Amino acid sequence: MIDYAKLALQKHKELRGKISTVNKDGLDTKEQLSTYYSPGVGAVSSYVAEHPDELRDYTWTNNLVAVISDGSAVLGLGNIGPEGAMPVMEGKAMLFKHFAGIDAVPIILDVHTPDEIVAAVTAIAKSFGGINLEDIAAPQCFEIEERLKATLPIPIMHDDQHGTAIVTLAGLINSCKITDRKLSDCKIVLVGSGAAGTAIAHLLNEYAHPEIICVDSKGILYKGREGINSEKEKLLAYTNPHNVEGSLEDALTGADVFIGVSQPGLLTAEMVKTMAKDPIIFALSNPVPEIMPDIALAAGAAVIATGRSDFPNQVNNALAFPGIFRGALDNRVRSITNTHKIKAAEVIASLVESPTRETIIPPVGDSRLVPEIAKVIT
Amino acid sequence: MIDYAKLALQKHKELRGKISTVNKDGLDTKEQLSTYYSPGVGAVSSYVAEHPDELRDYTWTNNLVAVISDGSAVLGLGNIGPEGAMPVMEGKAMLFKHFAGIDAVPIILDVHTPDEIVAAVTAIAKSFGGINLEDIAAPQCFEIEERLKATLPIPIMHDDQHGTAIVTLAGLINSCKITDRKLSDCKIVLVGSGAAGTAIAHLLNEYAHPEIICVDSKGILYKGREGINSEKEKLLAYTNPHNVEGSLEDALTGADVFIGVSQPGLLTAEMVKTMAKDPIIFALSNPVPEIMPDIALAAGAAVIATGRSDFPNQVNNALAFPGIFRGALDNRVRSITNTHKIKAAEVIASLVESPTRETIIPPVGDSRLVPEIAKVIT
Question: Of A232, A272, A376, B371, which is least packed with CB atoms within 10 Å of its CB?
Fold first, then answer.
């Protein structure tokens, strides 16, 4: 068993950073210096100043994404601040390059209110062809992404929300195939209404309008419950149509699908047994899922997906974001829409020709993912 | 004669950007993914969050500079905005990589007041090991740099100011050697009190306290003149000790040195003839200098330097900034001081073993520049 904590500390210190920049041409001759810098570059600057829409044709912005975080919700570590976020953002930049050939620059923000974050990102946005927001805590992440999308003409995606939602939808599409269900007829219990949970609910509703019941630390989310914030009010606009109250156990009785983006061990075998026949379980708490796969299967689960690479059916954002940004950049998409997300989920699902309970989503290394997803982001 | 405008437009469009990112290691195996991203990176993030001073030991920030501009004073093009600035900033990033092996990321700002620029740069500063401010108009550039230096614990340098000042000082040190002068005894006429002119005056005063007379579009700068802004008041604290009034011609009579960072053709042969014997001329307006070298030499100039690569003695910032940031990053310098700038100028001057009127500064390609300058930035 590899001690990844130790190995990671070792390798990071040894490499002193995981990414680097390179020049696309030499600067050894006077001709090169005069072409790429003064005086030649002056003509390019003048031209681009007069034709700002062509900025991407003349600069690296056509293939460039910023990976931006304020460090308020880093992996499972919580609000550890911008410095702590940097290794993850640099890792994400590596993923962009490795999977999609996209240049990515990690940016950590030392400001934390939505106003300040929106101001900082807006100020630097023209430097990039797209923006991947990462590891920003809920509920601020919703407002920040919405406001940036409303004003900036480049693709912006908070991956913790939408990457997870897209891959979850892809997995559910194939899980329904296996269990002979229609997603629109499913009763889905969704536990955890942070960034990922909220985005999953919105996307499932957009796609198939199933019956969704959200559950958080206070139990079932229902109209009239005390202390509902505006994001939860948005969820209540379409979830819990019969406005039932109660606990997770109450919600689960007869449910077709459990989706957890909450905490380790929340789901017991007993609860699984109260669900509908052949229940579908997405236990996405990471690294320790809401229920371990062997327990879920023994209790009757037809499909179990987790966030882990050492079990089958890993719900991994890296299935979605590389292709989405590849397509958004190549096709000069100005905004990533729900339609894009649904199409991406359908592509991911379709890449598994014959879904089985152990293969509802393709592996991260599937080389068809990026080009096929990119095609539908237009 | 190469048409660099045409060639530059062609090559920029062909390459679609001049820089790119690369990963320092592969991500092909599960072990690599788990080391550089989840779960291994979590240990690095936790560690860095607890030891933020060690951020640079574990991330690319140890070798990373941001090249930041709001596009308000791009090359000779003026206030052409952030898009127009991008090709120059990307070119500067190339120079950083080529000359000093430093990773550099161009950032263009879509905000323009000092408050907004300071806020945006402060918000993103932890993402970088150093900040090169570029092509920001005077007088805002002074306030912006000062405020950022006062609060951020990383090296920050507005290169248009200090790069030019450092190389000018280096050239003057050797020009004085050739003409058997002491810089402290020189009478220097400095025309143009924008970013570069102001920084040159400050650095010369710090180094040798010569007699400096500043001249701008309204003539000699003197105490009591109308409409003096705070930056010009700072200049008046030590320039023009006899508080003379008058025109450029008046200032030049008997002067040892002319330094122009102003406009083409400002200096005539007649004016040169009124200067002291063996005058030193730095005609740095670019691409067309204040006086052409052949005219200056015919009028009696002992030394003529310009900003152009096709004449001898090119005053080029690229002689200074690569080594300065190389040293600042390697030696974990938290602020670039006047002492650093003076030492850098002395190093540059010292690399010309036997200065002649045609060689007062080394060529940009001199491979000793970066390591020798870096040694004194401690």
Answer: B371
